[in-house]
Every structure is written in C-alpha cells, then in structure tokens.
Amino acid sequence: APQPDHLNRELLYGLLDSYLKNDVVSIQESIVHHVEFTLARSRYKFDTREAYFAAAHSLRDRLIERWNDTQAWIKHKDPKRVYYLSMEFLMGRTFLNALHNLGVMQPYQHALSGLGYDMEKVQQAERDAALGNGGLGRLASCFLDSMATLNLPAWGYGIRYEYGMFRQVVSEGFQKEQPDYWLTFGYPWEIQRPHVAYPVKFYGHVSVHESQDGRQNFVWNAGEEVTAVAYDNPIPGFKTPSTINLRLWAAKPCQEFDLEAFNTGDYVSSIIDKQKAETITSVLYPDDKTFEGKELRLKQQHFMVSATLQDIVRRYKEQHETFDAFPEKVAMQLNDTHPTLGIPELMRILMDENHLGWTRSWEITTKVFSFTNHTVLPEALEQWPVSLVEKLLPRHMQIIYDINWRFVQELEQNHGISGDKLGSMSIILDTEYGKMVRMAYLALVASHTVNGVAAIHSKLIKETIFKEFHDIWPEKFQNKTNGVTQRRWLAQCNPPLNRLITETLGTEAWITHLDLLKGLAAHAEDETFQQKWAEVKVEAKAKLASLLKDLTGDDLNMDAIFDVQVKRIHEYKRQFMNILSVALRYDRIKSMTEKEKEEVVPRVVIIGGKAAPGYDMAKRIIKLISAVSETVNNDPDVGDLLKVYFVPDYNVSLAEVIVPGSDLNQQISTAGTEASGTSNMKFAMNGSLIIGTMDGANVEIAEEIGEENMFIFGVGAQEVPALRSQREYLQVDPQFQHAVNLIQNGHFGWADYFSPLIESITGSRDWYLLANDFESYLDAQERVDQEWRDKASWTRKSILSTAGSGKFSSDRTIHEYAEDIWGVEPLPPTIPE
Ligand code: TH1
Does ipTM surpass 0.95 in this model? Predict the structure, then answer.
C-alpha cells in the first residue's frame, strides 16, 4: 500500500475533510453519543441544557475535523500568515454561527426535533462569550469570521479571561455589576492544549555579559514566572472548509518549584503563592476608553504578547533556519495599543535569545507590525509610568529607551527637528508625576502602517493626535473603514429578511458578496415588495416586543416607532441628549388635549448599555433613563404614545434581537468623537433608519445610502473646536432649557442626584455640546415623526438602507487589510484539478 508520503498530499487533505457524516441519523447518533459519553448522562433522559451541550460537542467534532485539515494544509503550503493580536474578542454565542457557516442548520434542526428538542430553546441555553467591552472587541470577532470566510491563513490571539464583561443588573434604576463566571458548565467550543505552553517572565533584573566576539549580551533574570497555556477556538468560514484558530492564553503556575522555599519548610504557603499566577487571566478590565494604569493590566498585556510571540517564533522556526524570511512569512496587527509590548518583546527575542544585532532586529520588527488606532479621546490613550514598566519588565524598558533614543536621533538628523518639538514627539513623556511611556507613539514608530477605522477618523488622527508623525511619515497612514460580518448580523439574526433578500435577488451570494444588496434598490418603489418588506419588519419587531414583554411584562404598541440606542454609556455618545428629548416629548404629550394626542406618532424608546463601574457620570445617566422610564410608563395621560425602556445587560445576543427589531437607531455622538461605530452598520443592514450626526462611519453610510434616507443633524467635526471655545457665550435653546428644568425641578425625582449631570452640560462645561446640537436634534426627531406618517416613504428608505449597506461588510474591510497592509493572500483549502 502506498505510504501517505507517496500520496498526493493535496488529495489526502481533501479526503480527510469528509470523515464525519451530516445526515440527520448520523447527527442524532453523535448527539446521543455525547450525552452518554461526554456528559455522562442518561441517553434516555436529558434536558434542554444537556441537549445544547451534546449538540455543541457533536458540532465541535465537525469543526475540529475542518480545523485540523486547514491547519495541516496551511503548514504544508507555508504562506505568509497574519496574526491579529487583541486583548478583546467579543464572540457572543457560537452554536448558531457554526451551524450556519458549516451549512448544517437543517439537519441539526431535524435531528434535534426528532429527539424532542426545539432548536430555538436549545440555542438559548448557550452563554455568551463576552471577552470584550464593546465595538473594539466585537470588531475583532467580525474580523475572524471574515478572515476564515476569505480563506486567509490567519490567527487570532488573545486572553481567556475567566470572568468576562460583568453582568449588568439594574436595581431601582441603579447599575449593579455582577461577575460573569462564564465557564461554570464548561465551554464546549474550546480545545485545551496543555502541551502548547510557554513560560512568561516578570520582574527581576538585567545583567550584561561580554561574549567572545566582544558583543554585549543582555540576560533577563526574572523574579516571577508563570505558564501560558493555549486554548484553541476553531473559527469556521462560511461555505468553505477553511477553519482558522483563535488561540486564547490562560495563566497557570509554572512547573519549576522554588526548591528553596519548599526546603525552608513552608510547603503550604509556597503552593498558595503559586496559585497567584492564575490571577493574571482572571478578569477582563471593563473600562471602555478610560485608561487605568493598573499593574495587573500591564501584566495581562505582556502575558498575552509574550506567549503569542513565542508561539509565532516557534512556528516560524519549525520551517525556517534563519530569520531572513520572517517578514515575508509573518504580519502582526495590533488592535489598538493594548498589545504594543509585543514590539519590545520581539526585539528582545531577536536580540537576546537569537543574537541578532539591533539593526537586523529592528529591520525585522518594523516590517511585521502594523497598528490600528480606535479613538482620539485623550483619556483613552495608554501611558504607562516608566517606573512601573521598569519594575515589571526591566529589559523591555531598556529596549524602549533605545528605540526612543534612535528615534530622537533620526528626528534631529533626518528631519531637522529640535527643541520642544523633539520632546512633544518623544515616546517618553516627562510629567510632574514622573516619566510615562506613550504607547501609541511606540506603536507608531515601530509599525510600517497605522490606520484609523473610518474615513473621518483617519483624517482626524493625521490632523490631531498624530499630526507631527504624519508630517514626517505621511506614507505610513491609511484608512480602513470598519465593517461587520453579514453572516451573524443579517443572515443569522434576521431569517425572514434573509429569505426575502435571497428570494428577491434570486441568489444567496450576498452572504459572501454584500455589494449585491444594491440590487434591492430597484425594488424600493415597488408596492408589493414594500408590503413584504414591512411584514418582515413586523416579524422582527414582534420578537423584540416579546423580549421586552419577558423583561417588563408590558405589551408594546406595534404601531409605534421602535427607537433604539444601544451601546456603552458614555458622555460623548450622548445618551443624555436622547433622554432629554424624551423628557420633552413626555411634557408635550402631557399638555395636549385628547384631540391633539390623536396626531402624536407613538414611540417606544429603547436604551441599553453598560457603564464602566468607576464612571460616575455614566451611572447617573442610567439612573436618569430609569427615572424617566418609571414616570413616563406609569402615566395614564401618556398611554401607549410613549414608552421608555432601559434594557439591562445589553450584550451580543440581545443585540441579535434588538437590531433587527428596530425602526430607528440613534448614532448621535458629538462630531469628531466616535471613531467609527459599528452598530450603525448592523442597523442599516437590517433596514433600520439612522438618526445621527456626521461622525464616524455615519459619514460614509450617508454617502452610500443617501443623506436623504437618514436623519442627519448637528454641527460637523470642523466646527467643534471653535464652538467649544465659545461655550460660555452660546445662546441656550429654550427647549433645551425647558428639558433641563424638568429634571432639575424633580419631575422624575432624584433632583439632587441628577445635579452633577445638569452641571456637566451647563455653560462652559458642556464639552460634548449637547446644548448646541439640541435644537437641530429635535428638528431631526420631528422629521422622523413626519416620515413615519408616510408608511410607503419610510419603507422605501428602509429598503434603501439595506441596499446601501454593502460597503460595510467586514469582508471588504479584511480584503483591504490583506491587500494594503498585510500582504497575505487567500489559501483556499480546495483540491486543485
Ligand atoms: C471603539 C470606538 O469607540 C468605536 O468608535 C469603534 O467603532 C470601535 O472601537 C471599533 O473600531 C473603541 N473601543 C475601545 C476600547 C478600549 C479602548 C479604546 C477603544 S476605541 C478599551
């Protein structure tokens, strides 16, 4: 018999792909098998949760099969690989996504119902993997889906936090945080790899040794060592066997025991000490855009990049003798500055462990890293105290100093820069509290490319936070407008719309080529099509209504505009402005005669999002929304003309119901503050109209779907700086003043508690220009009501929203990254003819 080596390898990989069968009986057998042998429960009696776990394990087998083949195939071909380094991956649920991408939805549905289970309920038994805060983490997850679907040889790297994003409970209107211990019942989608483990060092000191050739060798004698263990999460592409890997690291105590401590007799406390290693990966920091200089967070960052780089270098060395080809085989994307320590870590590995000189190491490093900036808010920019970096990572601090020293030399010699300007560009910043490392500058200096996440944002970073760098290196700067995966955010979460689109276009090719949605525009005026479109929306609204019924007991008015703002609570996102306008609407209805009320367009206002636990203002905003909700919803004068709900614990799975069920969505950040936003794209895809400012990706959405099909208001980013400097002298709109007075006068109770909120938008303190934009916002809201009165026109705009959202697929985004930044090519795992 021919040995595998003599077989055509490409054929062999193709054959391996079809080992498990996907007919209904085979699937039922595998589910029942997992009930008995994986869960060790009776195969005659298992509940919904067990049905979920068994079905998940059965599906996992199929994922592993493809995953193994993909990895073997990539290894065999040894193409350039891209590594996406991120401290956050907000994956949400996997079951439905995997069924959908593997194309086995139908057989699993039948298999489960044959066993007496309802797919919908089984699927609800899964807990979200919430290893991220919001947009940045969800973007990383959409990117993985697109990279797999585009057959890119790609890897995701991150941290397996034991506690994900906290669970938000709202009690008497106040946010309470509860731990999200998401691993209680086990996580069936991961594969532990106890043998893929690396030591990660911290603390200690650096010693210098003279080698025979007279070179200095730096040796880092660490004070603490922990082990990073890999957990692999297969990420299936859609309609391709290609299944890539998300490798998440968990911290474990290292193997070596400090014999001295043991011999001195304190056995038990030595063991307890060891256990402390695990704390490194215990919890996700729940702060969205406020930099907190906590030592544990810095440890997490180094832990992630150190394990990742050891893994990448090991993989490279398996197939290559020297580092010469490293930049042709490796691209690494830094998701914001959080993984920037990877830069000095790679330098250290190349210089200290592989004895390449500085010049060679720097050349390699600067060819492999690229960096994405996600915000211009100054409070989010990472600056670590030199004293802390020095203590935790003494060798890295030396390398950062060296990088900075050479950078400053270059500025002086090649760019003629001196004096204050040198200081303003330095990676090390001198402050009254001591020296700081500006991580964004470090990332910029060492990366070949930096990109913003929407056109306006990429322009802004060149003009503001990175201006001096743009002056010397204009060619480094790029834009990569964000996108979202239409698999999860349209095809899976909105089955009725999926069917209607596929039926109308006569193809489901839009699921991988979202541009095809523009074919819907031809039907926008068609009355029967509008009818069908409206019916689909009603179906999605009914699902959202049933969710709210479960939460509140209320039956929603299905004729109302479902008006949604869901995102992290932040002053710049202006949920406060939203609720002020709701207060005003309430007050207006209160003063109406019954006759006048007949003309009112009914609204259901839905707001959801988490406040960072230490963000006092954001927490007060939640209480204000709850207080307004309490008053409005219980006022018989208002009836079902206006309802306000704060949806607790907004997360990916809730978004999958809320987004399709909305008529209107609010994207109302002060122009120039929201880098991109990504929910705006999800809403547009699902035919929800946007009320918003010319900020972030809204600008490009307006280009694509037409400004006339959105409700745009407010000042532009260019006007913001001048307006800010004039805040004290600006005329305050009387309606704004009236809304403020309602709150101040205790209309919704809690007047004292809300006074810091009022202060924050008064006169010169109104940083986000609520007072200034309010009139224009109310005007846009008025246009919304007018539009709703004309059902055909509204539906037409809804169709055009979906039709114009083709650009906002993460497939497009990833294709651009691959071509313009990474230089990686698709490697379809198919058998060549
Ligand atoms: C967000 C941006 O605010 C948002 O506009 C953008 O669409 C999204 O990233 C994806 O690009 C950011 N999230 C974070 C989270 C942290 C720090 C900075 C940002 S910017 C922790």
Answer: yes
